[in-house]
Amino acid sequence: MVKICCIGAGYVGGPTMAVIAFKCPSVEVAVVDISVPRITAWNSDKLPIYEPGLDEVVKKCRGKNLFFSNEIEKHVAAADIVFVSVNTPTKTSGLGAGKAADLTYWESAARMIADVSKSSKIVVEKSTVPVKTAEAIEKILTHNSKGIEFHVLSNPEFLAEGTAITDLFNPDRVLIGGREENAGGLKAIQTLKDIYVQWVPQERIICTNLWSAELSKLAANAFLAQRISSVNSISALCEATGANVTQVSSAVGKDLRIGSKFLNASVGFGGSCFQKDILNLVYICECNGLPEVANYWKQVIKINDYQKNRFVNRLVSSMFNTISGKKIGILGFSFKKDTGDTRETPAIDVCKGLLNDKAQLVIYDPQVPEAQIFKDLSTPKFDWDQLGSTIQITEDAVAQSVKVVHNAYEATKDAHAICILTEWDEFKSLDYQKIYNNMPKPAYMFDGRNVVDVAKLRQIGFIVYSIGKPL
Ligand code: NAD
Ligand code: UGA
């Protein structure tokens, strides 16, 4: 029986390993983590992350060929293949602060693998890492080698939160990068391929050299984010000219060379990876003497920041330039629908912008716990472009001006304005007449996700602002 151990039981490690265990009954999978609460939750009925379809997959395999444990060293020592899926956040101090990836967690995992291993292993980079990381990992693994063979592979993950299980069941591609130039490297690539081939069609498994695989992951995220910034930049022009961004993106996307996906204008992209990975790409370009390339990608993040600021400015200016003491109902806080994840959610910047203008916020999100919202709004944000323009709100100010409630009607009752910041399906079918009746007039709707039927809401009496739509 092939034994797999995955270090890091997070949004990637947990679902990815659960699907491998589900699809490969002859493989034994142990997912390990330093966090005791996380592992306890993985072993309970309330999993630590909300992801449609995940509960069923975990329930079918847990205790059979899928195990969650804090006994990291024991499981690493016993494994044939070790996936490393630890977090790789942006560095916040020292060399490369604000851009470079912080590889502290990765390095400590690699050192531990080297220390506890007594048999040869394939070590798989599952985390998103800077191109050339495998070289550093190989050095760490072989430095203390007791004659043990280690083969490092890059197998970046392309799942998106909210659709992780369907993405893993039916991936567009699986990418495996390895040392194609030697027999050991080729054998390692084949071993990992043998796992995926149990449910992924051969032609979707792409094998490349290590650096191509590492760089493809950063490039893919940069391309995806760039599409959103492109359509968001056009949304500003739509508002200025009377064009409708939904019509424009639909017309543009019909061209098969462009494609229709990922062209939804929004209040801005969020999530733990797009900004982090682009900043990482920018840093690598700068380190390789390519400032023009670095500046090109930086612009994708600048447009994203601009879009969030533009939304706040539109709201304040529409409401007679003052929202001081006014109640704003916030619908949605997670960075996208069908996840409780709030990392880099645009809702944080928008809410901080509104709090900076002294608004009173009442927030509802179907999945994000109250404590997480308070924590996100009072945690100082790292100023990536060091311009000092990032708004910081104190814990006291958050406590005084923010309330978290348990449904959309409560959040919008007596509100001067509503902001939709996440595209949860339930926001499409709310009784907006009832909501309107419970608001002071004029009643404003600022839809940051193009969820509502603008004409219908205007008919009810709302003043509606929807991203990229005629005012
Ligand atoms: P996460 O923070 O949810 O999970 C990482 C886990 O690693 C944490 O539970 C942490 O406790 C654990 N950990 C850290 N150091 C450890 C160590 N030395 N030993 C054991 N456990 C350790 O992060 P995530 O969202 O799962 O992302 C992991 C990586 O995957 C990142 O590089 C990210 O860029 C990449 N990625 C994420 C997504 C996504 O949708 N979240 C998608 C594709 C790729
Ligand atoms: C993204 C990529 O889609 C995954 O392929 C990748 O594996 C992952 O990052 C990662 O490396 O972490 P994720 O961030 O989970 O996945 O979710 P997305 O669906 O990509 O959405 C990201 C953000 O963009 C969200 O805030 C979403 O609302 C926004 N978005 C997306 C738009 O504003 N418009 C769109 O058309 C699409």
From TrEMBL:
Kindly list the residue ranges recorded as spanning the membrane.
none
User: What Gene3D superfamilies is this protein classified in?
Assistant: Cytochrome c1, transmembrane anchor, C-terminal, NAD(P)-binding Rossmann-like Domain
Would you say which domain of life the source belongs to? Answer: Eukaryota
> Quick one: which pathway?
Nucleotide-sugar biosynthesis; UDP-alpha-D-glucuronate biosynthesis; UDP-alpha-D-glucuronate from UDP-alpha-D-glucose: step 1/1
BP terms from Gene Ontology: glycosaminoglycan biosynthetic process; UDP-glucuronate biosynthetic process
Q: Where is the UDP-glucose/GDP-mannose dehydrogenase C-terminal domain?
A: 329-454
Catalytic activity annotated for this protein?
Answer: UDP-alpha-D-glucose + 2 NAD(+) + H2O = UDP-alpha-D-glucuronate + 2 NADH + 3 H(+)
Q: Which PANTHER family match?
A: UDP-GLUCOSE 6-DEHYDROGENASE 1 (PTHR11374:SF53), UDP-GLUCOSE DEHYDROGENASE/UDP-MANNAC DEHYDROGENASE (PTHR11374)
Q: What is this protein called?
A: UDP-glucose 6-dehydrogenase
The species is Helianthus annuus
